[in-house]
Amino acid sequence: MRPTPARLLNILVPVKRTIDYAVKIRVNPDQKGVDLNVKHSMNPFDEIAVEEAVRLREKLKDEIKSIKVVTIGPPKSIETLRTALAMGADSAIHVEIPDSAPAPEPLGVAKALRALIEKQKDGVDLVIMGKQAIDDDAGQTGQMLAGLMNWPQATFASKLVVDPATKEANVTQEIDGGLQEVKAKLPLIVTTDLRLNEPRYASLPNIMKAKKKPIEKVSPADLGIDLTPRLETIKVAEPPKRQGGGKVESVDELVAKLKEAGFLSKS
């Protein structure tokens, strides 16, 4: 009797449309947020996650069945999905919210991702996602999703090795003062750090192919999820401008200046 072949792995990669990292952030006139009428692109940590998923398939070849990307955002977020598809993902899901809707909070995103995972007929074996988004810098969604799913998590990954035969992954994590390696069973949540890889540029042929790849549109209501924020932003303000420094001619003058400023005792 032939052994039953192992089920191929399905990878889910959440991505987010954020203000481009090179744009200078400005507070909007009502001081409730920042000016969003600027260039947007895929969150850099999510680019790393998409790249890692594609590299895993290139390495494991026929062991990976699908790479699916998902985003939660306004209609223009479809551009972010197209970028991920051009990088090598197979299909996408767009949880569309109105342009006027506030950005969902990490817990809402994690609940939406849980609902999506539970709806996947073929299941999800590995979720690879950025450790944080550069707009809110929360760094919470991956951990919350792991908690909601009761799955193991490996955060701040700088190296990822997956064994489809044993359904295990070895993840090297960056910690204070060095690196640590952890082993976890699939299904697994992995969040990516900067040194995991360097994302590729999508080629023109792949950009054209991406236009034909399927993108499924759903709403939060379809998932039974309420993305209404639980927190209210009272005010957003720019940090105070730094005052210019001055030069001193000697150590004695420096000490005198520090005493005048109250940083040193005058006794």
UniProtKB/TrEMBL annotation:
Question: What cofactor does this chain's UniProt record say it requires?
Answer: AMP; FAD
Instruction: Give GO terms: molecular function aspect only.
Output: electron transfer activity
InterPro entries in the record: ETF_a/b_N, ETF_b, ETF_beta_N, Rossmann-like_a/b/a_fold
Q: What does the cofactor field's note say? A: Binds 1 AMP per subunit. Binds 1 FAD per dimer.
Q: Which GO cellular component term is one of those annotated?
A: mitochondrial matrix
Q: Which SMART domains match?
A: ETF
User: Does this entry carry the keyword Transport?
Assistant: yes
Classification via Gene3D superfamilies: HUPs
Query: Which superkingdom does the taxonomy of this entry point to?
Result: Eukaryota
| Keyword annotations from UniProtKB, A to Z | Electron transport, Mitochondrion, Transport
Q: Partners and quaternary state?
A: Heterodimer of an alpha and a beta subunit.
Q: What does this protein do?
A: The electron transfer flavoprotein serves as a specific electron acceptor for several dehydrogenases, including five acyl-CoA dehydrogenases, glutaryl-CoA and sarcosine dehydrogenase. It transfers the electrons to the main mitochondrial respiratory chain via ETF-ubiquinone oxidoreductase (ETF dehydrogenase).
Write the protein's name.
Probable electron transfer flavoprotein subunit beta
